[in-house]
Structure formats: structure tokens, C-alpha cells
Amino acid sequence: MAPLPGAELVQTPLQLYRYLLRCCRQLPTEGIQEHYKHAVRQSFRVHSDEDNPERIQQIIKRAIEDADWILNKYKKQN
């Protein structure tokens, strides 16, 4: 499963946050969705003080890859 449309357009932390919450809607059950929404919010808070643009881009890239992996994981189970 490819990342959701728009993944290539994510450039800022806010865009990433919104993208990841949209990814959560693709998950199969409400419990799983809530688990990952909570993880997204926690991660956003943990990294909110990051000001190095290079590091921010690394975080964005990794978060999109992780979201893709998670979506694939649940798609294979169903």
C-alpha cells in the first residue's frame, strides 16, 4: 500500500500532524485508531521544540515511512 495521497507534499510539522491523523482514519477499528492518534499527539509534543530544519525533515520522512508500514501491517491482517 502506497502512502496516502499528499505524502509528497508534507513539508511542515503541522502538515505532517494532519497527514498522520488522516492515516489513522484508514485503520480498521476505533481502538486501533485511537491508539495511533494518541501516539501521533505524543510524538508531536515531544518534538515540538525541534528547530533544526534538517532534523525536522528527517522526522517527517521517518514518520511517513512508519505510517506506511503501519497501514500495510493492518491491511495484510484483514
Give a written overview of the molecule.
By secondary structure, the chain is mainly α. It has one domain. The protein contains three helices and no strands. The radius of gyration is 12 Å and the shape is globular. The chain starts with 12 loop residues before the first helix and ends with a helix. The mean pLDDT is 91. Pfam families: Complex1_LYR.
Summarize the structure.
The protein contains three helices and no strands. The chain has 78 residues and is mostly helical. InterPro entries: Complex1_LYR_dom (IPR008011), Complex1_LYR_LYRM9 (IPR045291), Complex_I_LYR (IPR052151).
Summarize the helices and strands and which ones pair or pack.
Elements: H1 13-24, H2 30-46, H3 53-77
Helix pairs in contact: 1-2, 1-3
List the main descriptive attributes of the protein structure presented here.
3 helices, LYR motif-containing protein 9, mainly alpha, Complex_I_LYR, 69% helix, Complex1_LYR_dom, Complex1_LYR_LYRM9
Distance between the termini: 13 Å
Share of residues in strands:
under 5%
Low-confidence stretches: none
Count the domains.
1
Backbone CA Rg: 12 Å
Structural class: mainly alpha
Please report the total strand number as a whole number: 0
Order of helices and strands: HHH
